[in-house]
Write a structure and sequence with these properties.
The protein has a single domain, classed as Glycerol uptake facilitator protein, CATH 1.20.1080. The chain is about 80% helix and about 0% strand. It contains nine helices and no strands.
Length: about 210
């Protein structure tokens, strides 16, 4: 039981850190600078080995079936972390952050599901590459470049990251059956994108260094 609780707790902290990156992005008008600072979230998740769903799902096929439980509990923790931070921020003086998040959320909800799915797949590909490079790259500078470039790429391209979007929905205070349906499509797309690129990586690298910590 403690092991399962640990998965949720590590996911919760990852959700908080991704939310911190999201807050920084909402605070900065320049999208390039904002996406760079957003990278703080994924970087700290990797440094502290917290459980971020989009950073772990690509390793599903090289782990035991029980790993699926870790993934789902981590995802639950991610949601709880983003939900708490997003709703706490609604009590602060930064109303402009809420307005900015609402605009972001409305763009997503006005998109069609196929578009959301495709954009989520692309994000999953980038997240796997960024995290796996951090895990396997021996060069310290290379580790960090992958994280910053990966996050900046998915944000500036407008790709869909399910955990980041959990934060945006939370701070905007917008939740409905439609929102949860869109989140499920994002989760599925992120998962497929990560697994697709992981399959290629495992095939040509024997998967020896590809298992999740």
């Amino acid at each position: 039981m403690k092991k399962y609780l640990d998965f949720i707790i590590k996911g919760f902290y990852a959700g908080i850190l991704i939310s911190m990156g999201g807050i920084a992005y909402l605070a900065i008008e320049n999208k390039i600078v904002g996406s760079f600072i957003f990278s703080f979230g994924l970087l700290t998740v990797c440094i502290y080995s917290f459980n971020l769903f989009t950073g772990k799902v690509g390793y599903l096929l090289v782990n035991k079936i029980s790993y699926l439980i870790e993934l789902l509990l981590s995802l639950l923790g991610n949601f709880l972390g983003t939900f708490v931070v997003g709703n706490v921020m609604r009590f602060t003086r930064f109303e402009n952050y809420i307005n900015a998040a609402t605009n972001i959320v409305n763009v997503k909800l006005n998109d069609n599901l196929l578009s959301i799915f495709i954009l989520s797949i692309f994000c999953g590909i980038i997240m796997y590459i960024a995290v796996n490079n951090y895990k396997t790259q021996k060069d310290v500078i290379g580790k960090y470049i992958a994280i910053f470039m990966g996050v900046m790429a998915f944000i500036l391209c407008g790709f869909e990251h399910c955990v980041a979007n959990m934060f945006y929905f939370s701070i905007a205070g917008i939740f409905s059956l439609k929102v949860f349906g869109y989140l499920l499509i994002m989760i599925l797309g992120n998962s497929i994108g990560s697994i697709i690129i992981a399959l290629y990586y495992n095939k040509y690298n024997n998967g020896a260094i590809n298992k999740s910590n």
